[in-house]
Amino acid sequence: MSDGAPWVIASDTREGFAARIREMWQYRRILGFFSLKAVQGLYAKTHLGIFWMFVRALVPLFVGSFVFDTVMNVPSGVVPYFVFFIAGQIPWNCFDGPLIRGSRGLEVNRMLLTKLYVPRIILPLGQMAAGMIEPAVIVLVFAGALVYYRTTDGLWYVQASPRLFASAASIGVILFFAFSLTLWTSVWQARARDARFALRFVVGFWLYFTPVIYPMSVVPPNIRWLMYLNPLTAPIETFRWGTLPTTEHSWPWFGYSVAITAGTFASGIWYFARTESATMDKI
Amino acid sequence: MSERWEVTPRYPGPLTTIGEVWRYKRLLGFIGDRALRKMYRRTVLGWLWLFINPLFPIALRAVIFGALLGVGSNGIPYFLFLLAGTVVWDVFAASLMWGTRSLEMHCDLSDQIYHPRAILPFGNMMPALLNVALKIGVLVLAVIFYTARDGRLYLRADVALFWALAALALAFLFALAISFFTAIWGEMTRDIRFALSQLLSVWYLLTPVLYPLSQVPEAHRGWMLLNPLAIIVETFKWGLFGIGQFYPDALAVTALAVTGLLVAGLIYFSRSEARTIAQR
Questions:
Q1: In angstroms, what separates the C-alpha of B1 from chain A's closest C-alpha?
Q2: How far is CA A188 from CA A104, A109, A126, A180, in A?
Q3: In sequence order, what are the residues at sequence separation of 6 or more whose Cβ sits closer than 8 angstroms to the Cβ of residue A245?
Q4: B82 vs chain A: nearest CA distance in angstroms?
Q5: What is the pLDDT of residues B38-86, one digit of tens each?
């Protein structure tokens, strides 16, 4: 070392958007590993295990349906309230669970991150898998409810029609929106635990802004646009429109939600990549 | 020299335990402070989080359930109705959540110095009570505001106010009694924390906080009154505003049950503490 050449320590090269996505694709097998780990870790060290997943999905559905339907008489159009309620809970749970779990992606893998390199974006994505268990269970309950009402009311409330594709698309939008938000929140949460309390707080009242327990028809028409500003409103309405007969829904606002999601995703990737090295230092 | 020594834990009765907690009462503030620090470590805002939440969710629920869905409120403004219900519910729910985590949060303290373990659930509830005190302050302001706006006194100004206080005390003691069990279980397994928060969110819906009991169809009212919290919440609102119904018999039964549970909890706690702490 006598030539006195200066040493340069290069940090990550920030190759931009396309490179990030390409890298994620290269490491896709790791995603499976992290997803599995997240699901297993969900109820590790608990005694009730898998049984617990069913209980925690089922009981709130029945109790909520009793309170909102029998006690509060919330209208639900032509379908029974229970069916209406679950058809809102499926897309909502695709948002709520994955967002909360995914936000912990960096935090829970802190030990691992200090030891080896993985594309960090994989971590929130893998963690989101743990949040998918609950909506999956609710879908099963939904199927059960449909069979039950087929025997009592003599008709299927869900018809096989091309509209079901719209429902699937809504789920896609919601999941993607949750992932895009995770790109922001997982960074915040790795830096300060405040983010966790704030997130729980925000998601807790977000539910009330979203037509899950009540239909859009109870909202006065002149302030409905205000509800649609919430990017979750249109996909949830579209999901219901696709699965159940006659509920309100609006394609222009669905387009708005897609645009918001795309914007959140692009800015999320940018933010995540920009703060990545600084976050890793703080962890 | 062949004397046999046998070391066995001693099981104090409930009265002894209470006496011991009383002697160590100066620890309460210390434990509460410690709980706050632990709960909000590595946060920027720290213990301020305890005070950030009170008002906004209540206002939002008032808009959704009171204005949009038109849920009844026994003839007083829905916001006031909801606020009162939330205060007494939170005395129960928040105390229970904090109390349950007490042993788990302070096990390092218990390793180091002696103190009566039974003081931990109680001391850990201090942050919850602070939060409730803030909500009570908001409730007082809201009563003043609505009284000035409508020119009618919503608050009931007679001895029945005593019943409202009794309901608050009962809600707290109920949470304390359950905490003696759940704190022990919470140290043994992680399930209990998830189970409890899940249970509380369902319990909340089944307790007449968002809606008055009078709105529940007659057929269902009977079994809803089996919920001690339903009695406590209704009594609180009846004592405060004179709305709803007063159930003296059910209240007496609830009070007896809470007392019984408290004694059972103290006994269970003092029997299990030695085992739980030794096992760790």
A1: 47
A2: 10, 14, 18, 14
A3: A78, A79, A157, A159
A4: 14
A5: 888 777 777 777 777 667 788 888 888 988 888 888 888 899 999 999 9
Tokens of A33: 């590993």
Q: Are A61 and A86 in contact (CB under 8 A)?
A: yes
Take residue B119 and report the two structure tokens written for it: 């003081």
Tell me, what's the ipTM?
0.81
Q: How far apart are CA B141 and CA B120, in angstroms?
A: 33
Q: Which chain A residue has its CA at the smallest distance from B53's CA?
A: A201
Give the closest residue to B254 by CA, choosing from B236, B268, B269. B236
- Angle in degrees, CA A76, A80, A81, rounded to 5: 50
Say yes or no: A64 contacts chain B, CB-CB below 8 A: yes
Confidence of residue A16 (pLDDT cuts 50, 70, 90): low
- pTM score above 0.90: no
Search chain A and give the residue with CA nearest B41: A193
Minimum CA–CA partner of B64 in chain A: A208
CA B201 to chain centre: 14
Contact, A65 vs A89, CB < 8 A?
no
Nearest Cα to B97, choosing from B11, B246, B197? B197
Are residues B56 and A64, on separate chains, in Cβ contact within 8 Å? no
**Residue A116, Ramachandran bin (φ over 0: left; ψ between -120 and 50: alpha; else beta):** beta
CA B109 to chain centroid: 24
Inter-residue contact A47 to B191 (CB < 8 Å) = yes
Please state, in angstroms and rounded to a whole number, the distance separating the CA atoms of residues A232 and A92.
Answer: 8
Nearest to B97 by CA among B209, B187, B182: B182
Give start and end residues of each alpha helix (H) in B101-160.
Answer: 102-105, 107-112, 119-124, 126-150
- Dihedral angle computed from the Cα positions of residues B246, B249, B254 and B256, in that order, rounded to the nearest 10 degrees: 140
Q: Is residue A88 a contact partner of residue A233, using CB atoms and an 8 Å limit?
A: no
CB B143 within 8 A of CB B232: no
CB of A29 within 8 Å of any CB in chain B? no
Distance, CA of A269 to CA of A231 (rounded, Å): 19
Type of residue found at A271? Y
The two three-digit tokens of residue B179, written as one number: 């905490």
Spell out the residues 6+ positions from residue A204 whose beta carbon is closer than 8 angstroms to its own.
B57
Residues B68, A219: contact at Cβ < 8 Å?
yes
Residue A156 backbone zone (phi > 0: left; psi -120 to 50: alpha; other: beta): beta
- Report residue A71: phi and psi, to 5°: -85, -50
Is residue A254 within 8 A of residue A230, CB to CB? The reply is no
Q: How far is CA A60 from the centre of its chain?
A: 19
Sorted by where each begins, the domain ranges of chain A are: 17-275
Which phi and psi (to 5°) does residue A149 adopt?
-75, -20
- Ramachandran angles phi, psi of B76, nearest 5°: -115, 165
Q: What is the mean pLDDT of residues B186-205?
A: 84
The helix (run of H) or strand (run of E) holding residue A65 is: helix A50-65
